[in-house]
Write a structure and sequence with these properties.
Cytidine Deaminase, domain 2, globular, EC 3.5.4.5, about 25% strand, cytidine deaminase activity, 5 strands, about 130 residues, five-stranded mixed β-sheet
């Protein structure tokens, strides 16, 4: 699958990040099963617990509009290395993805790697665990 548009959206959303405390801007974009793209950026807060990550901002935007099936997510933070989602974001991604969902770690429009949820969150606690 071609992810150029998704990656470009993640890069654009990174520019909107509000990161006055860490100075670490992050952007994310998700494509859902209806092929719509939603984006988000990290939004920090003086009360650090109120901070929201880019990945969750993008996913929550999609879910709030009724989309719950994540096809792919692109994430860009530090453009000199691949930025992985934090633990909380990995758990949120696992809630809305399946084993085929692409997790795209981006340095720039031409340099990225694609991972699957089992690679970044092995043994995830999921809805299936609650149904046992």
């Amino acid at each position: 699958m071609e992810y150029r548009d998704l990656i470009e959206e993640a890069l654009k959303f990174r520019e909107n990040a509000y990161a006055p405390y860490s100075n670490f801007k992050v952007g994310a974009a998700v494509i859902m099963d209806d092929n719509k793209i939603y984006g988000g950026c990290n939004i920090e807060n003086a009360s650090f617990g109120a901070t929201n990550c880019a990945e969750r901002s993008a996913i929550f935007s999609a879910v709030s509009k009724g989309n719950r099936n994540l096809k792919a997510i692109a994430l860009v933070g530090d453009t000199s290395t691949y930025t992985y989602p934090c633990g909380i974001c990995r758990q949120v991604i696992s809630e809305f993805c399946d084993e085929n969902t692409d997790i795209i770690l981006v340095k720039n429009a031409n340099d990225y790697v694609i991972k699957k949820i089992d690679e970044i969150l092995p043994g995830a606690f999921t809805k299936k665990d609650l149904q046992k």
